[in-house]
Amino acid sequence: MGAPALGAFLALGVALAGCGAETGEGEGARPPVADGPPTVRVADAFALDPMGAEQMAVYATLVNGGPAADTLLGIASPVAGSGSLHAMLLEEGMMRMRPLTAIELPPSDTVRLRPGGLHGMLEELADPPTSGDTIEVTLRFLHAPPVTVRTPVRDPADVVGGA
Amino acid sequence: MGSRRAHRRILRGIGPRNGLALGLAAVLAASCAPPEEGSRLARVAESLTATQFMQPYDLPVVTLTDQSGEPFELRAEAQGKITVLYFGYTQCPDVCPITMARVARALSMLEPEVREQVLPVFITLDPARDPPEQVRAWLEGMDPSMVGLTGTQEEVEDAVKQLGFVLPPQERPEEGWYEVAHPATLFVYTPELLGRFGYPHASATPEEIAEDLRTLAAFEW
């Protein structure tokens, strides 16, 4: 299966999982509680110094505090022409990056974009930032309003945790 | 000698007859003990953060192009060194810069007499986007003393295939970014040119890598 097809398949899976919970259709789905607008809190965001490359990784902890599932649809930044979401997979001893069109955020749960795992990638960097810089990153969700975070750019050697 | 005193301490609670039996067992055990060489390696392997592979990898027989555009014969250059080897590509946003930056940080922690025994090597599996000048620029931001190798697609693939990796079919669209599959492991070769050790997900800290390199540098290979 080609990468785009796999990405679409993964996105479909996460989107379908999200749909059931939010509309209340299907057996066992909880109806959304009228508790206020959906929000996703973004914490501990940081980006990696692209080391002169045209892409840079973005990580964060996403907290969906609400009773309904949400979905991370994408990331963007003024420093980047485009953004994308990826999963890191280990296949036959090789590292693979798989594009995702969405990342599911289950209700009352935390999803971590982290080194070696799920992460965002800012692409088409016209003037690649370096460690010590701070960039603005906007995360877009299916239900919650977009969240813009000031994101420090860090030296890859200082990153704790790996694949 | 201290060992004789300790020996008597152990036997006192056992009694003469059992002591004799134990003594005979000890003599038998000693004669069946693994050769000194094997247990010496096992002891150093146990002290490492790096994993010891069941089967060591051979260092690939390959001549690639270094970041100055010069030919680099890997096995010849690795003679007498501890080679730290990673395959990746410079347009990799996540694991490759993290891994090589950690290696660079580890190298910076080493005493000069240890550092000079280490050969850190990065081989790109993406020569299309990684000619020598790109590899040089990428490594320069971390540690310009690390060796970065490129070549033709066939040459770099030959290197990784010699380690037994099967590369998946690679899509290289004309426009836009694309990913390149690469081994997840950070390999460590001894001066025997045997890849006995490695970090399977390249997740060791710079401190752990540095300490392992000190241990390996101190070992009599």
Main sheet properties of chain A: 10 strands, mixed
Helix-strand topology string of chain B = HHHEEEHEHHEHEHEEEH
Helical amount of chain B: 40-55%
The oligomeric status of these chains comes to heterodimer
Tally of helical runs of chain B: 9
Written as H for each helix and E for each strand, in order along the chain, the element string of chain A is HEEEEEEEEEE
| Classification by helices and strands of chain B | alpha+beta
End-to-end separation of chain A: 24 Å
Q: Strand tally of chain B, please? A: 9
- The portion of residues forming beta strands of chain A comes to over 45%
| Main sheet strand line-up of chain B | 1-9-8-4-5-6-2-3
Number of continuous helical runs of chain A: 1
Rg on CA atoms of chain A, Å: 16 Å
**What structural category arises from helix and sheet content of chain A?**
mainly beta
Runs of chain B in which pLDDT lies below 50 for 5 or more consecutive residues are 1-14
Our measurement of the CA-to-CA distance between the termini of chain B, rounded to an integer number of angstroms, reads 31 Å
Radius of gyration of chain B: 23 Å
Describe the sheet with the most strands of chain B: 8 strands, mixed
Map the helices and strands.
The complex is a heterodimer of chains A (163) and B (221).
Chain A (H helix, E strand, L loop, with lengths): L2 H21 L16 E9 L7 E9 L5 E7 L3 E12 L2 E7 L2 E3 L3 E5 L5 E7 L8 E8 L5 E8 L9
Parallel strand pairs in A: 1-10
Antiparallel strand pairs in A: 1-2, 2-7, 2-8, 3-6, 3-9, 4-5, 4-8, 9-10
Chain B lengths: L1 H11 L3 H16 L4 H12 L3 E8 L4 E4 L4 E3 H4 L4 E7 L6 H14 L3 H4 L2 E7 L7 H9 L6 E4 L2 H9 L20 E2 L2 E4 L4 E6 L6 H13 L3
Parallel strand pairs in B: 4-5, 5-6
Antiparallel strand pairs in B: 1-9, 2-3, 2-6, 4-8, 8-9
Helix pairs in contact in B: 5-9
Structural description of this entry:
The complex is a heterodimer of chains A (163) and B (221). Chain A has 163 residues and is mainly beta. Chain A is 13% helix and 46% strand. Chain A has one helix at 3-23; strands at residues 40-48, 56-64, 70-76, 80-91, 94-100, 103-105, 109-113, 119-125, 134-141, 147-154. In chain A, strands 1, 2, 3, 4, 5, 6, 7, 8, 9 and 10 form a ten-stranded mixed sheet that branches. Residues 11-32 of chain A have low confidence and may be disordered. Chain B is α+β, with helices and mostly antiparallel strands. Chain B has nine helices and nine strands. Chain B has helices at 2-12, 16-31, 36-47, 74-77, 95-108, 112-115, 132-140, 153-161, 206-218; strands at residues 51-58, 63-66, 71-73, 82-88, 118-124, 147-150, 182-183, 186-189, 194-199. Chain B has an eight-stranded mixed sheet, sandwiched between helices. In chain B, strand 2 and strand 3 form a beta hairpin. Chain B is globular, with a radius of gyration of 23 Å. At the A-B interface, strand 4, strand 5 and strand 8 of A face helix 5 and strand 7 of B.
